[in-house]
């Protein structure tokens, strides 16, 4: 019986495939490949250099420091991959690309298919490579020596969301950014370490109280560390009330487009005791 193709295939075009080989073979990514859920193909870009010295770069027109990866080399590589199997997306890793976020990881995992990732080196790719790709992606506002580490980050972020890769498919739903907030703090044994104990609410077994505590902690962490996430966090009226209690101002709530907190109920008046009949 023919085994169905994996839900997701990454073909990584790189000058240094050995940098990624151990990463792709270990932990959840390695297990996902063994189970046929994900496939990672590491391809050496020099294989399509077109010259006996396997040279893939050249000096930039107009002068300047560094070397630039040639567009014809990338084009030959992409043509060869398409001849082997259909390609759904071609991703170029570049500081000029759109910042990769959790929502992208979720969308890519849901889309599945065959994704080619171009890892640059030196001064990057010839600008004409841009017309050969479907997406330009960055993992943050910083510069590295090559795209391999960024490719590893993206592959792990996407692959873990493919159904069946994680032991508990629902385990990622409360991850930082998946809910729009930073994740709440987690604890395990020992119950007390160097005088610091696990919060009692987590040991009480009351699921409603635990859920409320976790939501409050996620709001508190996000307010303190990443308030820029709150405008898109899908806040509820109860969240707005909790944020005010945590120190946010009404002006901040307005700036985050947060809903109005629930109106406080007026205190109930006590009924006067009826007079005894005469």
Note down, in words, how this protein is organized.
With 278 residues, the protein is α/β, with parallel strands linked by helices. The chain folds into 2 domains: 8-159, Alpha/beta knot (3-Layer(aba) Sandwich), CATH 3.40.1280.10; 192-255, tRNA(m1g37)methyltransferase, domain 2 (Trp Operon Repressor, Chain A, Orthogonal Bundle), CATH 1.10.1270. It is 31% helix and 15% strand. It is built from 8 helices and 9 strands. The strands form 3 sheets. A 5-stranded parallel β-sheet has the order 2-1-6-5-7, with helices on both faces. The chain is elongated. It starts with 7 loop residues before the first strand and ends in a 23-residue tail after the last helix. The mean pLDDT is 92.
The biggest beta sheet reads: 5 strands, parallel
Oligomer: single chain
- CATH class categorisation of the largest domain: Alpha Beta
CA gyration radius, whole angstroms: 26 Å
Number of strands: 9
Which class best fits the helix and strand makeup?
alpha/beta
Query: What is the correct CATH architecture of the largest domain?
Result: 3-Layer(aba) Sandwich
The residue ranges in which pLDDT falls below 50 over 5 or more consecutive positions are: none
* SSE topology string: EHHEEEHEHEEHEEHHH
Sheet with most strands: strand arrangement: 2-1-6-5-7
CATH topology of the largest domain: Alpha/beta knot
Terminal-residue CA separation: 95 Å
Number of helices: 8
User: How many distinct folded domains?
Assistant: 2
β-strand percent reads 15-25%
Helix content: 25-40%
What is the averaged pLDDT score? 92
Output the CATH homologous superfamily of the largest domain: SPOUT methyltransferase, trefoil knot domain
């Amino acid at each position: 019986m023919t085994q169905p193709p994996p839900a997701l295939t990454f073909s990584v075009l790189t000058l240094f495939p050995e940098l990624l080989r151990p990463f792709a073979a270990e932990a959840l990514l390695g297990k996902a490949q063994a189970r046929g859920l994900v496939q990672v193909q590491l391809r050496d870009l020099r294989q399509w250099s077109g010259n006996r010295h396997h040279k893939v770069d050249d000096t930039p027109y107009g002068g300047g420091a560094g070397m630039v990866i040639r567009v014809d080399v990338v084009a030959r590589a992409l043509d060869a991959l398409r001849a082997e199997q259909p390609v759904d997306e071609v991703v170029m890793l570049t500081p000029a690309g759109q910042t990769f976020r959790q929502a992208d990881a979720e969308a890519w995992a849901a889309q599945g298919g065959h994704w080619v990732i171009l890892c640059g080196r030196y001064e990057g790719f010839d600008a004409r490579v841009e017309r050969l790709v479907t997406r330009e992606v960055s993992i943050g506002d910083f510069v590295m020596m090559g795209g391999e580490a960024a490719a590893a980050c993206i592959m792990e972020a996407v692959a873990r969301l493919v159904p069946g890769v994680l032991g508990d498919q629902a385990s990622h739903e409360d991850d930082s950014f998946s809910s729009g907030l930073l994740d709440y703090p987690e604890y395990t044994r020992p119950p007390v370490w160097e005088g610091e104990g696990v919060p009692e609410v987590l040991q009480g077994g009351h699921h409603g109280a635990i859920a409320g505590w976790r939501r409050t902690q996620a709001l508190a962490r996000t307010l303190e560390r990443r308030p820029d996430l709150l405008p898109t966090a899908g806040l509820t009226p109860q969240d707005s009330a909790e944020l005010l209690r945590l120190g946010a101002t009404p002006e901040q709530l307005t700036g985050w487009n947060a809903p109005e907190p629930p109106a406080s109920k007026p205190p109930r008046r006590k009924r006067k005791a009826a007079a005894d009949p005469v």
